[in-house]
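User: Hi! I'm a student and our assignment asks us to look at how structure tokens line up with a sequence. Could you show me two examples?

Assistant: Happy to help. In each example below, the sequence comes first and the structure tokens follow. Example one:
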Amino acid sequence: MLRRRKPEKKPEAVTPAPASVSVPAAATRPARWSCVDTCCWFVGWICFSWWVLLFLYHAAPASLTQQVTEAISGPMPDPPGALLRKEGVTARHPVVFVPGIVTGGLELWEGRPCAEGLFRKRLWGGTFGEVYKRPSCWLEHMSLDNETGLDPPGIRIRAVSGLVAADYFAAGYFVWAVLIANLAHIGYEEKTMYMASYDWRLSFQNTEVRDQTLSRIKSNIELMVATNGGKKAVVIPHSMGVLYFLHFMKWVEAPAPMGGGGGSDWCARHIKAVMNIGGPLLGVPKAIAGLFSAEAKDVAVAREKAPGVLDSDFFGLQTLPHIMRLSRTWDSTMSMIPKGGDTIWGGLDWSPEEGYDCSDNKKSENVPHASEEFRVGVDDIHISNANYGRIISFGKDVAEPPSSNIKRIDFRDAVKGNNFAHSNNSCHDVWTEYHEMGREGIQAVADYKSYTTSDVLDLLHFVAPKMMKRGGAHFSYGIADDLDDPKYKHYKYWSNPLETKLPNAPDMEIYALYGVGIPTERAYVYKLAQPAECYIPFQIDITADGCRFYVC
């Protein structure tokens, strides 16, 4: 008998346990970022942040800033123009704006191959984008000819025209925009407002020689007066524009060809008032520091803290020598050198500021003016040794003591020594007249110790003879003995109020508006800079900081 067998169960497959594998401990830790990874992450983070900010900038309403301000501090008050309109004030006299140095826009009309694509684009003002994109090209185009003070061959930079020429200096930095907007509230418009823009790099007379700017200002004022019922113009110059318009008022009265041929009564017939804002009528000490070492107080602090960035060949920039080379071609800067010499600005042991304690912004009491006690020293008075008449002093130990205790060696006949520029071809791109002075000439400048305003003119002739030769043909810095002397009919005297007469306009009003109680650079303590390649040999010594030394 056959019996059916049960099928046998197949044994289950047994998966063998994996053999234990030893893993190095280092593989279990996250890998460290390399320097390249960190750099890429940082660049990506910057790009992402930039795009987010750019998106928010375009997405946010234009009034967002005002809305936030109003939410914090309440509703914004009406601007002055709106308040005047409510009071019934309306436009009457045409208004002329005269901008100062550096505030007017400049645009390119002809340039070198490196400036391709920049025709009629702003090289000065606006975003200053070309400074970052092509700095060497920008410097080349913004410089003037070192011999003539006019355009270099193949380059034409011209002033922007219209109210937009100087309404904003850069994005968010207004110059005339607020005043223009307030005047618009009471009825002014472009036909009753005129921006007298000019190439502020040029000497005043050269703006007429090259661009006929003075003639254009004359014609525009005459047109505005004629089309506004004969109402005379109100002129508002600012900063160096005050000197420029002073020059214009003498030019327009003078006969051709040197002048505009308007006649001695032109100002009386066309100008109601001149409202000068912050005009450097007698010059400013800051102009000396700018021409001597390309510095002012803020630049001096940066130069001391980061000397490699501004002085030496840091990434090939040589920033400060480039700035000096550029600015020394701008003849207009010499219009603001202090005028009147020691009579106005003081001598080695006195100055008009004697008795003024600028630490408290008040006049120190019980300090005899120009007294020997004040000069020699009164220990309990903060400014007992502040000799502001010494516009330049080499060392704190020279800035304080009486002049009788200072041994000075005259620099005027000093031998300048060997020219180290010819032995160093790398300095060609940042050439300044300092490169024609040997170490002997540099030391001679320092050995003179203290410089008054009169000395400074000789100093600038010594260290920058080509620049001062151009400046001497266009500007004067003295005090007239006799204003009837025929020599004062020359245009170089027209921007110096100490050497020229006011216009023949007895009914014309002149206003002078200045800030009060604001610390202002008055004199400087210098030192010799550390020798370096293509360097500027002198720099402001910020260790002498404090109002007793150079700010008041």
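Example two works the same way, sequence first and then tokens:
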Amino acid sequence: MTAPLELLAGRGTDLLVRIADVACSGRELPPMAERLAELVVRSARALTFCDVYVLDEEERVLEGPGRPPVPLGEGDAGWVAAHGRSRPHPDGRGAAIPVHGDGIVIAVVDVRSAGPCPPDDLALVTALAGLFAPVLSSCRRLRTAREREHAAERFAERAVEAQEAEWSRLSREIHDGIAQRLASLGFHLSAAERALPEHHPEGLAQIMMARRLCELAAAETRAAIGGLRPPVLDDLGLSAALATLAREAGAPSGAIDVTVTVEGELEDELPDHVQTALYRIAQEAVGNSLRHASADHVDLLLEHSSDRVRLTVADDGAGFSIRDVLARGRRPDSYGLRGMRERAELLGGRVAVTSRPGAGTTVEAVIPIPGRRRVTPGRGPGR
């Protein structure tokens, strides 16, 4: 048995039980620091006060529950964190004691007593600091992992919002510019038709062809505007937007049937930027089935577990050989697959494409639900 454990065991089994209770009470950093401070005061004979300061992620300041941050090098706790060794208080009524972990000082235990601090109390605090170093290290790594996860989620949200804002801007510019000019062109062609002299079949035919081309261009412009920013996604949510996408996919010819299955109510659980990404992936996958697969039927399935959402788009089209595509020097990321993958990866997810000639194509996107990812910061103590 090591000397610190011998010292702790000498204080009785009740102390060992309290240590075990605190060590197993969770991995949230502020509550753990508070419980450790309470344990120190309860276990020592003369100590009346204890603060536990933990080094922040950037290793610049010490943070304590309900206390202002302490910069490294300032005050007793800051000095101990900077130099890595204990420092008695000048009045002899306590000390600041380092907690070493991950090759650095990760925390400082600052204790005080009403009178001169007994050496055995300081030895007890030093032993507890060493014993709780792995626990505080685990708490600190978990906090760091969560902060980085939240930062990544915020970045992804801002990136999706910026992209959608740009698409909305383009949609407005197309509507106010190209669409209006095409409408004006249609009016002028109608006027030209009325002004055309009688018995001028060739001129009339040219004007009619020009009007037809103008109408086609206007229809394509409206479709582009709707694709850039589908209002139904904002107004009714993801489920309704996917149902609308399915209806519109079969509208031009009725030759393709798209079925949509949504398991559970997702809108309340998914942030707007995740719904937007899933809609865009579904839009691209269904569009690929229409344009390239010669498919008769497309199944679109949206489902979720406790921490992620899964979108599957499967068609019964011609399919293709990914191996042959690679052998010809073409990437399987063509036909918009790269964009789908980038959207999913931006949100910490993935897109997988499976296909065989004559067996159709399946696109599967899996995206974690923000705030529900399983954070695994590393192996904890004693594991």
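Here is something you could point out in your write-up. The chain has two domains: 3-149, 232-372.
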